[in-house]
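Hi all, posting the design record for the shared folder.

TITLE: backbone redesign
STEP: 1 of 1
STRUCTURE INPUT:
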């Protein structure tokens, strides 16, 4: 029997028993969106998973703080604002607000803070200065790079050797000590999104933007860093190097958790390919509760294909669960507490296998509604726990 949660940690590359640094308290950081468009279903799948993870940890008795950064510094935002004929600030703020609204429409209630990175330029500069002082970063002209050779663990998170990393240079620049070195600060002559720094006018590198948010909320480290799997390299690899080097801690983040991609017609959902379905469009035709059961039923680490026909089936199952819950509430029955050996809990404890937990829920509720043989109490309790853990209102 699994009486504690085991979760797949990307760094260890296996399921590990979950233990937070401080018992009863879990701190989590989830990589947020670049605010240049409305949220699409691929994002929704990712954020619904982390919402469920927060909810499940809370169900297990933890006080959970979840922080999501809002990336409002990006070339895509500058370009989008120009095309829309509006200011960069107005453009980013419009889509930042839309993201928070869409999260609310999806029923995501577990986020303690949505933090726009542009508020933390002084922190990014201070961290960069400190990394230079520690010998982890160096300057080329108006730019500053993190030297990956100063961090022996570089490559561990993405499970790549130095040779493999060397084959994929990402930021080409002259004078870098190692082609894998990534920018903490980039000199810039652009009209928009540049700030004064000890190295001249420029803009912060992508990874340090999130690292600044991390240290504001969790200066002593945190339990879980989450995001889509495509962020493992270079984004999270770079962040891990920055955070461990800056804090002097070998394990600033305790668990690295990654979720799979959502594809449509076997392609990654993306704006440029015109394959992104917006959350606000889909919620016109489907209930957020049904969307949750559908997405959470996919195993979080697997890539999955979005099919509207499947979502339609979940819409029916969702309403059937709700109407069965009404029926069950009329049945006399003892209130049963969900025990640790309930298959629902067992499935969730085994790396959040919500698909199995949901199947068990559907089966149990259907059987109880049919039989009415005094199993109403157990089924109702299961519905209540599932509502709070899955974030779908299943009890009317
Ligand atoms: Zn991030």
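Okay, here is what came back for every position:
SEQUENCE:
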């Amino acid at each position: 029997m699994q009486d504690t949660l085991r979760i797949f940690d990307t760094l260890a590359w296996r399921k590990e028993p979950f233990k937070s640094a401080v018992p009863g308290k879990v701190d989590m950081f989830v990589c947020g969106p670049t605010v240049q468009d409305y949220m699409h279903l691929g994002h929704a799948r990712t954020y619904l998973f982390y919402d469920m993870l927060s909810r499940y940890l809370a169900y297990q008795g933890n006080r959970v703080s979840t922080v999501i950064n809002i990336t409002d510094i990006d070339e895509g935002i500058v370009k989008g604002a120009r095309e829309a004929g509006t200011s960069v600030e107005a453009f980013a703020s419009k889509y930042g607000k839309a993201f928070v609204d869409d999260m609310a429409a999806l029923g995501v209630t577990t986020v303690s803070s949505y933090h726009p990175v542009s508020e933390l330029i002084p922190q990014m500069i201070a961290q960069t200065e400190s990394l230079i002082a520690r010998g982890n970063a160096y300057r080329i002209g108006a730019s500053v790079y993190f030297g990956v050779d100063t961090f022996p663990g570089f490559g561990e998170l993405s499970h790549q050797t130095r040779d493999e990393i060397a084959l994929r240079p990402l930021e080409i620049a002259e004078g870098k000590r190692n082609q894998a070195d990534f920018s903490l600060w980039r000199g810039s002559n652009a009209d928009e999104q540049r700030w004064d720094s000890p190295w001249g006018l420029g803009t912060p590198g992508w990874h340090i933007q999130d690292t600044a948010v991390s240290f504001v909320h969790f200066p002593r480290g945190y339990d879980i860093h989450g995001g889509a799997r495509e962020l493992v390299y270079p984004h999270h690899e770079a962040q891990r190097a920055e955070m461990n080097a800056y804090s002097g801690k070998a394990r600033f983040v305790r668990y690295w958790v990654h979720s799979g991609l959502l594809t449509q017609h076997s392609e990654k959902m993306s704006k440029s390919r015109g394959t992104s379905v917006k959350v606000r469009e889909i919620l016109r035709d489907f209930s957020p509760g049904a969307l949750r059961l559908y997405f959470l039923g996919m195993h979080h680490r697997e890539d999955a294909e979005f099919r509207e026909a499947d979502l339609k089936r979940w819409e029916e199952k969702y309403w059937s669960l709700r109407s069965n819950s009404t029926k069950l509430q009329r049945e006399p029955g003892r209130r049963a507490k969900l025990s640790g050996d309930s298959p629902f809990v067992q499935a969730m404890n085994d790396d959040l296998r919500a698909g199995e937990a949901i199947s068990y829920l559907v089966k149990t509720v259907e059987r109880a509604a049919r039989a009415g043989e005094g199993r109403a109490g157990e089924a109702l309790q299961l519905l209540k726990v599932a509502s709070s853990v899955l974030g779908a209102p299943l009890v009317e």
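COMMENT: The two ends are 32 Å apart (CA to CA).
Let me know if anyone wants the other runs.
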